[in-house]
Amino acid sequence: MNHRFWVLPALVLAAGTACAQAETITVTVDKMAFSPARVEARVGDTIEWVNKDAFAHTATVKGGWEVMLPVKKSGSVTVDKAGTIDYFCRFHPNMKGTIDVTP
Amino acid sequence: MHFRPLAATAALCLLFAAPLAHAADKPTDPQIAHIAYTAGALDVEVAKLAIAKSQNKDVVGFANDMVRDHEAVNVQALDLVKKLNVTPQDNATSKALTDEIAAEKAKLEKLDGAAFDKAYVDNEVAYHKQVNEALKTVLIPSAENAELKSLLETGLKIFEGHQQHAEMVAAGLK
What we know:
The complex is a heterodimer of chains A (about 100) and B (about 170). By secondary structure, chain A is an alpha/beta fold. Chain A is built from one helix and nine strands; from the N terminus they run αβββββββββ. Chain A has a single domain, classed as Immunoglobulin-like (Sandwich). In chain A, β1 and β2 form a beta hairpin. The N terminus of chain A is likely disordered. Chain B has about 170 residues and is mainly α. Chain B has six helices and no strands. In chain B, α2 packs antiparallel against α3, α2 packs parallel to α4 and α3 packs antiparallel against α6. The longest helix of chain B is centred in the C-terminal third of the chain and has 30 residues. Chains A and B meet through loops of A and α3 and α6 of B.
């Protein structure tokens, strides 16, 4: 087996990861909903919630972090590992969202 | 079930009964606005009692959330009725809600500690559940004005959230 065939893609992947700029992904909170309810992110990206409601909300991960989202304010979190993150609003647990984090 | 919220039950029976008995007697927009505002204001009153009496962090936190959200909804409701030039109209459902919440508060005032916390939170679960039923089955379908209907729909989502939040707090008390 010739090593070049798998070393090359690995290098491309490594270079791609190194070059990728961390991005900020915006989730709007309006009329009692996270929109979009599901976002994709890469490790190192920041999720920013912009609360347009007249009500305070949170983005809370059960047993994990919590971002407070006061009325007409924003809050953010940087995702540091791959996986699926389900979050909800602690004040209104019927508001739910998901972040799919890829490496 | 000592502290079943007669408040919501009795008052909302009126809401359910009315459209069944007299299909033409659905509440008018000024009445709907009054009922919605009253339901929120009453929940704020009970929440303030909980903030004053409870020692439980989750219960006080929940009560603070109720004050904040219901006051915010009611500010929007007042802005809307002003904009629409509608005068909220008192009615039998609002009166019954007010009387029954007064009775509920009197009961809660006699309780302390864990008994108070449980009674308050159980009442909140049931109160929101029944207000939500009234919103879904009577108030929202009866509302004529699109903006009022939209505010009630937002209110329903908030109060469904409160119901779930109350259920989580109740589960934590056991």
